[in-house]
Write a structure and sequence with these properties.
There is one protein chain. The chain is α/β, with parallel strands linked by helices. The chain has a single domain, classed as 3-Layer(aba) Sandwich (Alkaline Phosphatase, subunit A), CATH 3.40.720. The chain contains 12 helices and 17 strands. It has helices at about 30, 100-110, 130-135, 165-170, 185-195, 200-210, 220-230, 235-265, 275-295, 320-325, 330-355, 415-425, and strands at about 10, 15-20, 40-45, 80-90, 145-150, 160, 165, 175, 180, 300-305, 310-315, 320, 360, 365, 370-375, 390-395, 405-415. It has a 7-stranded mixed β-sheet with strand order 5-10-3-15-16-4-17, sandwiched between helices. A two-stranded antiparallel sheet has the order 1-2. It has a two-stranded antiparallel sheet with strand order 6-7. Strand 8 and strand 9 form a beta hairpin. Helix 5 (about 185-195) runs parallel beside helix 9 (about 275-295) and helix 9 (about 275-295) packs parallel to helix 11.
Amino acid sequence: MNQIPRRTFLRGVGTMVALPLFEAMLPVRALASVAKPAPVRLAFLFVPNGVSMPKWTPATEGANYELTYLLQPLAKVRSEISIYTGLAQHNAFALQDGPGDHARSAAAWLTGVHPRKTSGADIHNGISADQLAAQHIGTETRFPSLELGAERGGMAGDCDSGYSCAYSSGIAWQSPTTPVAKETSPRAVFERLFGGDDPNESAEARAKRILYKQSILDMVFSDASALKSKLGMHDRQKLDEYLTAVREMEMRVAKYESARRAAKLAGVKEPADPRTFGEEIRLMGDMLVLAFQTDQTRVATFMFANEGSNRSYPEAGVPEGHHDMSHHGADAHKLDQKGKIDLFHTTQLAYILEKMASIKEAGGTLLDNTALIYGGGISDGDRHNHDDLPILLAGRAGGRIKQGRHVTYPAETPMNNLLLSVLDAAGVHAEKLGDSTGRLQQLF
């Protein structure tokens, strides 16, 4: 078996396919003893409009809590998750700024800062936890961070009672005045990860593939064959499995695009076909996992939908708008419909976590080497409150985080204390973030 560089790519005309870690990339001494630990990845997955808290919060604390209605889809990864109750984002409250809870909840979720109320160009927030991490560990990967979303959203204009759309359409902030736009096109994300670094050459290669209906792997076939001859049996099997996964994802992206085109021709307005929404979330989740697996990035955010979103959920049996159902007013039908939407979201989360748990790497699995926060900046959508937030932490951050519990913290505990603790687990130390007051106890 020949030694090959860690940052090896499969290359073709305008195409560059990253690779997972192979045994042939490890020093001989590492193979003979203990392989170098896998890096810790950070992911932040956001859902809007609050959550049906009675259906979310476990009745008891500790390791023996019962999975609630909304947590049932996570049964297979139960030992890899923990529920945290009592956390708050105080700066998402009005604080004399009047209406606009949706915009503030998204803006403050990873910053802990009260956003300036404006729909103009003078937006002002704070740096978000993911971007703080990207500044410290992003230089070690091809992309400092990856921002994903499953619903389009503008970065200008008024989206919530005088608050800029930049606040409700994103959760990543590179600086107080610089939001990071998310990518909502599965094709664009796929091309970004595998399409090469030369925009012109990449466009040419992409046009050629579409014209001849070629796979991106056809463009790197020769390079893949040459690499395979240098690999041992285990690595060859791993390469075949990985390339199969890339090809399957490419086919799924094409199928998803075909379904959207068909819906558009049938006169369905945006979103082009609501029935594809679950597949879009899973596609984006799979590409997030691939980006982590190939070490193209170690930091990612993913908004399942924009804050204040009123999209419908036919897949979940909810033809009404999400925002409308979140303002339930204790109406039994709306509460039931809201619960179905929340269950749909946790089902997609379970899919992503199970995929991470299925990928073996040094130190266990990809999920073992990840810290993933899931939740939102509103608790009850009807009250628009930003305390007692629905927060779930998955993954062990390379063995640093204790999992499998429901932990209740004192009311009004800043969520930013959790963010600081998770940053610590990834080797990113910050004295303070937003309104943080310290680190969380019982986490490690």
